[in-house]
Amino acid sequence: MFDFKKELLDLEEKRLRRQLKTLESQQDSWFVVDGKRVLNLCSNNYLGLANDKRIKKASISAIKKYGCGSGASRLVCGNMILHKELEEKIAKFKKTESALVFNSGYTANLGIISALVGRGDVVFCDKLNHASIIDAIILSRTELRRYPHKDSFTLEELIKKSENFNKKLIVTDSVFSMDGDIAALKDLINLSKKYNCLLMIDEAHATGVLGKNGRGALEYLGLENEKENIIQMGTLSKAFGGFGAYVCGSKDLIEYLINKSRAFIYTTALPPAVIAANIKALEIVQSSKNLRIKLKKNISFFKNGLKFLGFSVTDDETPIIPLIIGDAKLTMEFSKKLFKERIFVQGIRPPTVPQGLARLRITLMATHTKKDLEFALAKIKKVAKELCLI
Fold first, then answer.
1. Cis bond before residue 148 (omega within 30° of 0)
2. N or C: which end of the chain has fewer CB within 10 A?
3. Is the model's pLDDT at 68 over the cut of 80?
4. Are 331 and 389 a contacting pair, CB within 8 Å?
5. Which domains does the chain have, with CATH numbers?
6. Exposure of 378 by Cβ count < 10 A (0-12 exposed, 13-18 middle, 19+ buried)?
7. In this predicted model, what pLDDT tens digit does every residue of 359-376 receive, in sequence order?
8. CB 319 within 8 A of CB 335
9. What's the average model confidence in pLDDT over 46-75?
């Protein structure tokens, strides 16, 4: 019989056991966790829209007009006018022919990849891609070829050795969720063209954040003209402050997924309140650049502050800032001590990150004030000195 207690004790010994902390207030730059008011430095709510009054109003209005539930899957009777409106707005926003909404980023990746490839095909996957991408490839029963992080040379060598496969798919995060760096998308686009590969980009942490208009990494890197044969996936649960995910591309792609993606076909549609919230969030992201400008300033200020303290951080203009500690136990001690100092930031340990690369995953929001960030830097300095890290 499986001994759950023994397994949990083993995780505890290795400091790898995860435990839930309870949020007792709204998502914001400051909130109450386990009865304590703390500064939030670990949310993906990059633009601070999860608690926006305009979005809450839109969500409430949708409940009054359309009710609470969608009733069924989209292909049965759950395809409401709000779903169509959101998809049309996403396609226009991303400058693609069409778009399709999924229930979450995880299920979107499962549904897209497992519909695109199968036995006899091959997927080339960056080693630091999100877990949902890995799981999707395993579910698809296709051949997996992992290449070292952002190593385009090795990727090309792997593609050259894979001539006997039917379809070939390159898939990558555009902004990597645990490292905050940006994929070498220009190289990937060139390789996909050269070797006739499909290319799929997960824009979860780029949508709403990167680019002049928040359209993501392709816009940020000046590659939007190259998007014709690229499958773009992204989420509505991070910078948009809502829930759900999308895929966008050609009309044929979307029609194909409607007919082939099991994660789309066999699940109840997202409810009206969620869809209405996403529509309003998209309108806000498109109409106002101020939030992105404020976020960019916060990123620059905080990264410079960390460098001054002696930490090594990347120059990528994303709100994800990993403080690599290395040891899992020391990482969790750092997180615990910061919580006592009213700073809430989670320690990230294996298997989420490789052995020896445990870290604090700091994320910034547009709603953080300079005073908030100065407070955080002072507390990080204090605890880091106590732990002899600086």
1. no
2. N
3. yes
4. no
5. 16-46+289-386 (3.90.1150.10), 53-287 (3.40.640.10)
6. middle
7. 999 999 999 999 999 999
8. no
9. 97
Contact 73, 266 (CB under 8 A): yes
State mean pLDDT over 160-173. Answer: 95
Active site members: 177, 205, 238
Residues near 130 by beta carbon (within 8 Å), at least 6 away in sequence? 105, 109, 173, 177, 202, 204
Alpha-carbon distance of 99 to 51, in angstroms, equals: 26
pLDDT in tens, 265-310: 999 999 999 999 999 999 999 998 999 999 999 999 999 999 999 9
| Count of beta carbons in the 10 Å neighbourhood of residue 37 | 12
Q: Phi then psi for 197, rounded to 5 degrees? A: -105, 150
175 with 311: CB under 8 angstroms?
A: no
Whole-angstrom Cα distance, residue 102 to residue 267? 9
Residues 177 and 90 sit within 8 Å (Cβ to Cβ): no
Q: Contact 206/217 with Cβ under 8 angstroms?
A: yes
Give the mean model confidence (pLDDT) for residues 137-158.
97
